[in-house]
């Protein structure tokens, strides 16, 4: 066996050199692999960054930090390009004085922007003399930079942003530009994804805001009929939280969401809008009238259904109020006609009952009977007057009024009734409520009627009770402010079958003799004339609540200039204005002044003739306008009494004709009417200075007014 030869020194040296070369090559490969892995990780991170960033500034800052580390750069910046403006969103490693220097510089004046807009790819530029502007070279040397790289961020072909990187050492231009191209592509994808996500988030936000803020109740339902979501209006309408509403709908039937026909088979078949009207059910078991609209939609590529549920309770209530208002208007016309027809015979009854009661020839017992007849006739007159008040559509005399003061004054009048009935009163009427423009006496009448009804209802039960009066300001359609007043009691309430008739004239649930059934109907008419509403609601726990709503906005008061006239025993203003030319109708000073009477009712003519003769006048009575004209052509009258409403010539026609014959008769003219507050009559009388005499009239009123207009103020006393 031969002995093995030892390697020569030369061979050992070659082996060591080869091993060193292989180790270096392996180290370079490993470093290259590590760098490539780091680059791939960075680029992958940039693609995912758009999904995590909440704002663009966050995206820009993270992108610059990662790319600066990837490239081994000393500094970097990220700026959006908006026209000729650079909007810098992120800086890394750049001194503040340089940031201040470039802020506001037009984008079109910057070399990197001009090159990239021409379509150049990412590039590296050494910062040496002749290659860059002198001011830029000075800035680079001041910060220790030897080169910069410009990287476009494009979406499609549009340059959206610019990334800049600065280096403070040698740069392998070829390898660096390869890396910059990859960074440019990934940054463009990242920005595009961020903007897409931003739009989706904005769309989702808009959808969520609209979904939550819409006043209508909206449910989002799956094809299986399961509740996915519900907006705030729906949760409020159903009186439940989302989870409890979902459990209720799953555990119940589909009628809970609106209708018995709202079932899963119909959802699957539905291609367009479906509208259903039925009764909805709440988790607490209560129901409400509703209209349900079901619309199929695509959300996130999945089929869903928007179920829009409208609670029609208020709409139904408004419809009922409209029907009630139309009914009241029709009844008002009927009542007005009936009242006017009753006025003439009633005027004769009242007048002759007064004549009988003043006849000195009557025995005492018959005089007492005559006085009773006068009382009952006057009671009938007041009923007819209330009917006219109910039916009359005249503008109230409005003045700014404190509702609290008005309530206090009314309750002072009711103090005896409250104490006698052992009734507790609770008032919640704030002093700072808006003033209301109202006819104080009319609204006082409404409050008296409502509180008196409450007192009588409690007393009918025979036990102590409670009345609540509350008021507050509310908004109405059109943003007009209203003041709402409620009067509630814990009495027996109003039976369901009677509620639709409580505002009708003469309907009453009181015992005979305790009411005429006109209080609520008159109150309804007064409130309506004030452009308000009066309605009834049953009180929770028993009893009744009446709600009055009146406008709080200031309105011009109606010009109610004084008109000479009186009302037959109805507390009208006395006639105190001028009487004009009042000459006797006969040259003989001792003769009685003549008075012309025109009325188509024989009984009224007979009463006026008898009462005026007793007052010292010579009465001439006629039944038609033509006869009145003939009489006026033949002689002059100290006073002329004419009925306003007659067949043939009306009172105003007669006035115009008589004034054409004798102009001075206008100052001695009296209109007789069962409705002296009729707006047209009142305006006509005011314009011409005509005195008004309300039917039914009493004896003293007739004598006084005729004496005033004829110039015989002391007559008929």
In short:
The protein is an alpha/beta fold. The chain has 20 helices and 23 strands.
Architecture overview:
The chain is an alpha/beta fold and 717 residues long. Helix content is 46%, strand content 21%. Strand 19, helix 16 and strand 20 form a beta-alpha-beta unit. About 7% of the residues have low confidence.
How are the secondary structure elements laid out?
Blueprint: H1 9-52, H2 56-71, E1 75-82, E2 85-92, H3 96-102, H4 111-117, E3 123-126, H5 134-143, E4 147-155, E5 158-167, H6 173-213, E6 217-221, E7 227-230, H7 232-238, H8 242-251, H9 264-269, E8 274-281, E9 287-299, E10 302-311, H10 313-357, H11 364-391, E11 399-401, H12 403-413, H13 415-420, E12 423-428, E13 436-438, H14 440-461, E14 465-475, E15 481-489, H15 519-529, E16 533-538, E17 544-551, E18 565-566, E19 594-598, H16 602-614, E20 618-622, H17 625-634, E21 639-643, H18 651-661, E22 669-673, H19 679-688, E23 691-694, H20 699-710
Parallel strand pairs: 12-14, 18-23, 19-20, 19-21, 21-22, 22-23
Antiparallel strand pairs: 1-2, 1-5, 3-4, 4-5, 6-7, 6-10, 8-9, 9-10, 11-13, 14-15, 15-17, 16-17
